[in-house]
Specification:
The complex is a heterodimer of chains A (about 55) and B (about 425). With about 55 residues, chain A is of the alpha+beta class. Chain A is built from three helices and two strands, in the order αβαβα. Chain A has one domain. Helix content of chain A is about 45%, strand content about 20%. The radius of gyration of chain A is 17 Å and the shape is elongated. The chains are: A alpha+beta (about 55), B alpha+beta (about 425). Chains A and B meet through helix 3 of A and helix 13 and helix 14 of B.
Chain lengths: ~55, ~425
């Protein structure tokens, strides 16, 4: 599907990451859900590395 | 194929699911608790020195010293506490737990709860009720008088009644109370009622005077939190065997001493991971605010550690009137705890969660990965000794406890040559 055709059709949006994108969709009456997603360990690289080491077992 | 950590956690969860906490009797702390002695005072949370103790814990220690007969005045008690002649230790190091300040002295009566599955014991003093009480740091004349009544009248009657009745299954009582709107930490109305119903005829059969029996019934009936001091040792004897499972990442202790919050992780043995305890943003009684609050205090979050308390709030919607929020928040708290736990309880089911079992077995890896900290509902003590409870609310352990534990766990695996 070409991008222009996509935006002419009814959008159903799944948003991950910044919640403000989801709020923008809602304010424009676009059907959207927000996924409560965070990077592992909230982006704490040291903790993510420790988890990764444990997963290597 | 499951790795050795998964296998260890499976073993830890089996111990939690199979635990059979049972009230088997009562005794005096000095004769009952391992390592208890005349000059030893136990307190809630990880170990803390007198100079680092917060107001309510110091207050409870002063009251405990006077009650124990080691000093006559408040000044003498403070001097003795600071002299080095009194030893302090964590309740948890003596198979015990205590709500709020959690002070236990040698002559205090305690409940004896046995985990029939593993044969280990846990101990807890009797709940004093609300108002001017030792566990919130009060030490006035009325506090000591009430403690003496508990020792001289309440204890012998309950001890005899339990002997007449025989063992009381705490696990079954917890399961029933959960279905009646308790979560066994800050709501114990159903559990207390069930306990009274169970023990009533045995109290009547004791050799005590009619007058004393009536006073005991009136006290039990007036104290909605009486059951807390049974649910806590029930949780403690459930969790202690978990602490011996090598390589398990399950948290088997969460506790606060009013200064620090501490956790212990099964695979890391008896080592505490501590950080400054938080001040609770909750519902304050009229005339009080966060400025009056002490930092988080008490061993009572052993309930959450075992999967009840804040983890089971969905089943106790009325509790939000005490700790703040809405019934929907209570469901959300419980739902989010499934993100950081390994299983659902087989025994503890919540009707309004479609009889889903409570979230069971906190895994430090999941806490770090999701950044969701365990939820604890709790009473709030005044930071000033002798004032008492000033509110209640919801609090979480500091993330640093889990970060330090995870790091120590990886170091332990590294040292044993188990990591790439």
């Amino acid at each position: 599907m070409k991008v222009n055709e996509l935006f002419k059709s009814e959008l159903k949006v799944i948003n991950m990451g910044l919640e403000s994108f989801y709020q923008d969709m809602k304010s424009q009456d676009v059907s959207a859900i927000h996924v409560n997603w965070k990077p592992a360990a909230g982006g704490n690289e040291k903790m993510a590395a420790l988890l990764s080491r444990m997963k290597s077992i | 194929m499951a790795n050795f950590i998964d296998q260890a956690n499976k073993e830890a969860l089996k111990l939690m699911q199979d635990a059979q906490p049972t009230l088997i009797g009562m005794g005096i702390a000095k004769d009952t608790l391992p390592g208890m002695r005349e000059n030893l005072i136990l307190h809630a949370g990880p170990p803390v020195k007198w100079e680092d103790m917060s107001g309510p814990l110091r207050g409870a220690v002063v009251g405990g010293i006077i009650y124990q007969g080691l000093a006559e005045t408040v000044d003498e008690a403070k001097e003795l506490a600071a002299s080095g002649k009194i030893d302090f230790d964590s309740c948890h190091h003596h198979s015990a737990v205590g709500p709020m300040a959690g002070v236990v002295t040698a002559k205090m009566p305690v409940f004896i709860v046995k985990n029939m599955d593993q044969g280990n014991y846990a101990y807890c003093t009797m709940n004093e009720g609300l108002g001017e009480v030792l566990r919130f740091g009060a030490y006035g004349e009325n506090v000591i008088k009430h403690l003496n009544w508990m020792e001289k009248t309440l204890y012998p009657i309950l001890k005899e009644a339990i002997e007449i009745h025989g063992p009381i299954d705490i696990k079954s009582m917890n399961a029933q109370a959960l279905q009646m709107g308790d979560e066994m930490h800050n709501r114990n109305k159903a559990g207390t009622s069930l306990f009274i119903r169970e023990i009533a005829s045995s109290i009547v059969k004791t050799n005590a005077s009619e007058e004393d029996k009536v006073k005991v019934f009136d006290f039990l009936n007036s104290n909605d939190h009486f059951y807390l001091n049974l649910s806590m040792p029930g949780a403690k004897c459930t969790m202690d065997p978990v602490g011996k499972v090598k390589y398990s990442t399950v948290v088997y202790t969460m506790a606060r001493n009013g200064t620090e919050f501490g956790i212990r992780v099964a695979g890391l043995g008896n080592r505490w991971f501590t950080a400054p305890a938080e001040i609770i943003d909750g519902l304050y009684f009229p005339g009080y605010s966060m400025e009056d609050a002490n930092r988080d205090i008490g061993d009572s979050c052993i309930t959450e550690t075992s999967g009840i308390g804040g983890f089971a709030m969905a089943s106790a919607p009325a509790i939000v009137q005490f700790v703040g929020g809405t019934p929907a928040d209570a469901v959300q708290y419980t739902t989010s705890m499934y993100e950081i736990t390994l299983e659902e309880s087989v025994a503890y089911k919540m009707p309004n969660m479609n009889f889903r079992g409570v979230p069971t077995g906190i895994d430090i890896r999941k806490v770090i990965e999701t950044q969701i900290r365990p939820v604890i509902n709790t009473g709030i003590a005044s930071k000033h000794a002798g004032v008492g409870q000033v509110g209640a609310g919801v609090v979480r352990p500091p993330m640093k406890c889990f970060e330090d534990a995870l790091q120590a766990f990886v170091e332990m695996l590294d040292n044993e040559g188990l990591l790439d």
